[in-house]
TrEMBL record:
Superkingdom of the organism of origin: Eukaryota
Lineage: Eukaryota, Fungi, Dikarya, Ascomycota, Pezizomycotina
Protein name stated in the entry: ubiquitinyl hydrolase 1
Naturally occurring in which organism (per UniProt): Byssochlamys spectabilis (strain No. 5 / NBRC 109023)
Reaction catalysed by this enzyme: Thiol-dependent hydrolysis of ester, thioester, amide, peptide and isopeptide bonds formed by the C-terminal Gly of ubiquitin (a 76-residue protein attached to proteins as an intracellular targeting signal)
Record-level GO cellular component terms: cytosol; nucleus
Compartment annotation: Nucleus
Amino acid sequence: MASDHGLPGAQLEQNLADLHISPEQLADNDMLVDEYEQYNNDRTDVVVVSRSGSEEPEPEPLANDFQADAEKYGLGRSGPKLTELSHSLLLEETLYLIRHDGITDEAMMARLLPKDPDLETEDEAHHTWHIQDWRKLKRKEHGPIFQCAGYPWRVLFFPYGNHVEHASFYLEQAWEKDPPENWYACVQFALVLWNVNDPSIYVSHVATHRYNAEEGDWGFTRFYELRKLFNTQWEGRGATLVQNDEAMVTAYVRVVKDPTGVLWHSFQNYDSKKETGMVGLRNQGATCYLNSLLQSLYFTNAFRKAVYQIPTDQEATRDNSAWTLQRLFYNLQTSENPVSTTELTASFGWESRQIFEQQDVQELSRKLMERLEEKMKGTPVESALPDLFVGKTKTYISCINVDYESSRVEDFWDIQLNVRGNKTLDDSFRDYIQVETLEGENKYDAGQPYGLQDAKKGVIFESFPPVLHLHLKRFEYDINRDAMMKLNDRHAFPMEFDATPYLSEDADKSEPWIYQLHGVLVHSGDFNAGHYYAFLKPNKDGHFFRFDDDKVIRATEKEVLEENYGGEYDLSNGAVGVRQPYARGLSTKRSMNAYMLVYIRKTRLDDVLVNITKDDVPSHIETRLAEERAELARRKKEREEAHLYINIGVLNEESFRTHHGFDLTSMDLPAGDPALPKQYRILRATKVGEFAQQLAEEKGLKAEQIRFWVMVNRQNKTTRPDQVIKDAEMSVEDAYNRYGTKGNPFRLWMEVGEPSADGTVAWPDSSASVLIFLKHFDVPNQTLTGVGPTYVRKNQKVGDLAPVILDKMNWPAGTEFLLFEEIKHTMVDPMKPKQTFQQSEIQDGDIICFQKSIKESELPPTAIYTEARQYYDYLLNRMNVKFAPIKGGEGEEFSLTLSRKMTYDQFSKKVGEHLNVDPTHLRFAPVIASTGKPKQFIKRNANQNLFQILNGQYGTYGYSMHRPDALYYEVLETSLSEYETKKVLKVSWLPEGITKEQTFELLVPRNGNISDLLAALQKKAGLDEETVQDVRVYEAHSGKIYKELSDNFNIAGINEFVTLYAEKVPEEEANMQEGERTINAFSFDREPNKTHGIPFKFVVKPGEIFKETKERLSKRTGIKGKQFEKIKFAVVARTMYSNPRYLEDDDILSDVATDPDDLLGLDHVNKNRSFWNRGESFFIR
């Protein structure tokens, strides 16, 4: 923290001059304080300035109502002029009387610090400090200590400003030493600076603050401008605020009780677990909606218990959403820190798009319930979710004058309630079950023998579930704006409500249907941007807590209820609106309001909020997480102790023999490869000899047999052994600092010497001999392998290596071979046998490669490289390329090691060999780096090599747009050249109504017509000749039929944005009778603009009642049983935003759908519904 709180440089000197203060007067005030750096200029947002003569209607009390009180106590001001001394005495006497009478200070306290009805006062106090000799004061001054609520307080004063040209005043706690442990105080305070002679001249500022050991002071850096204090007369009063270097400052302090433990908390270093016993969930980007729902479900204890009972031990993988949910719940139960949801969303199959898009809680809830129901099928908890969340509604039409009723009972998981037009939750329920009377021209046809009857039509509840999820419809379509808008109208909901009035007369009322509020999920913001958080009551008799992503905070009843009703702000202060979080501009309505309510039936509270014990957690979940936490703790300890340790990689003869590349090893090898250096983590202070002893024991050797060579990075970018560490007493840290390559890992070559008869090891003379490494290039098998180290004399000829090589390889005498020196990755040179090693410039650590001399005619066809140099070039350019089928499931995923220099035809041939297909029938597509999706297919180009194909496209900022190590492939029916003359059309074949769909990609000539498409479909789908004669093709757009295509329709005229369907014309349509016609049918989800599924044509028969029509619809669509019963049917006009006219069993479709453009709508849930009308479907894998 900075420590100088005076004004900077020349600015301070100028201010002092204006105040007639010399710098010398401040010479003894150079003690610098650092705890006030926090009072920067941004504190001005809490400054509120009041003056006498304010425009507010009520009379404003004076800072010290001197005139009035002086008259009250007989101290008139009309007498002789008071001397300075007598005035001072009079003032002190007056202040004394006022303090003891309490009138003025209480009035001032009430004016400046009106009480908040939601906060209970612990204590109040006021204290006045008489400031004298202002311009002789030190840079920082403290007022006298006074008490409030048993705590010491004082005013902190910077007479010349705290880094600003204003007087600075603060209220600070005044404990002599540190405050008691965990001490804090919630304080409302006002500081009033007033004229010593005229108390009506004053300035006041008000603030609230949570005082603690870290934040022990708070106040106003820019309390009042210095120049105005001394030079500006006060509104015609003929006096400045500071007169004769004197002023009074009064502190009004109120300590209030903290109702939640977090009142005015800054939340720096806030520990949810410590404060509440619970932890939050981390936000991944825009997953607050997910966090709110998960916390709500977690604290629905019966749900958590049911999730724990899903058998996951045989499928304990990160792809199993039930398993990841169990882990998340257990983490919430046991973790000390906020829990991540990354593992859960990954198990849903979500990509970054879903993570960073705000989604809808209701849709997420339904999808999650569906997925968990599937996981629970066939298990002991199969009925757990319906038993908790499912109730029943009855849709009915009941005749008024005769005893006849038509009704249908359906399950519901949640209830959607209208907010518009309803002020309370009960209003919304009454709206939901309101009865429509069918009379006059709209009478109900009850069939024989009743005929047309007056009737009541409506919905009533047969039962409610133990846990009731209520979704308040805060988002609705605005036809004027042509957009979805959020509804912020006031909608009140109670802590308890009785659901009995909304039940049918036949409902079971043997126990009360009274519900207690358990959770409020809040949306703050508008439709385009916002934030979710939840208020939940974990225990039936406990408090509510706010779960806001990673924070859990105790909440008051007002915060739970009233602050989430929405509705108008109180703007009596004349403001035009209030700025809303996550919303643009000002608003007169609260954008923070309840979006989902969770109620629990009071008689089932103990069952729903059942105690969850350790025994309820699956043992495999607990064990696995305990292991992971132990591993995390180990890694954390490693990181904390990292400065004490050094990592050393050790190579030896065994690792070299398994190496098949450049140098003695490669850092690019996969983890676990035996050619990698074995890693040792040892204390930096360990001696080299002690480390040798450790390795000797590990290898079953004597420590004397081991010596270490330091591996260094040469200038030619190779890594080789360089020199021996001779001092066994040296620490490994000193060895690294002296011999290692700075900034690179410390790697050693472990040399093992053979002991002589007396047990000692005689190491070769380094002045006369050189340590080299031999590699063998096996030409027939196309491999390069390390053979081992050996010593050669410097003056020895290169050809003298022959006996050593023949011995190591067990080759017969006379075997001819070639020698090469591996100088660096790009330089492998033949060696001259007659030169000495010294003449060949061979030094310690150099590598010599040898290969048998074999005639090319004796080599197998797979031997592409006949010489070591060619193979080294392949090594230099080799790369692993991953191949995957462009259509999942239509082929295998595999990797091939290829050369960057390969042409399109060469690598295509390699892929063809692997797949056992003709390489001319293959085509490839790059992989988009950011999404993993395929780009446009690559065109065959004889001049491009594999490296150029994989690295050819770069984005705006220079990075590659697609992956440099992967390609998608597709096996074509024809050769690539023929394929390019045709067009690919995706057609959905409907073999049985609309319940089954088979998608085929058909190759048809670009200048062909629909008959060509049907011929291709016949071949792909295996259709017989008779069937294909009756097949029709039609286009669909936005879930509705666009047009039917005739056999001679040109392929070129098909729009790329439509969906093509093909089906056999139904028999009843092929044989339509006179008067019959077809109507286009489509599916929608609650609103006609939310289309989904497959559209179809349906025959309308004149005069047929809809009850009979539905039987034909079931046959036509292939939808049967309960699934069909859930569908509601409606006639929908083709115009936008038309309201559907729902059909009853006695309606006649031909009479209702009279316009040729009318459509038949099937209203049922979209299993693949997208969030908030977004283009791509939301799903949980």
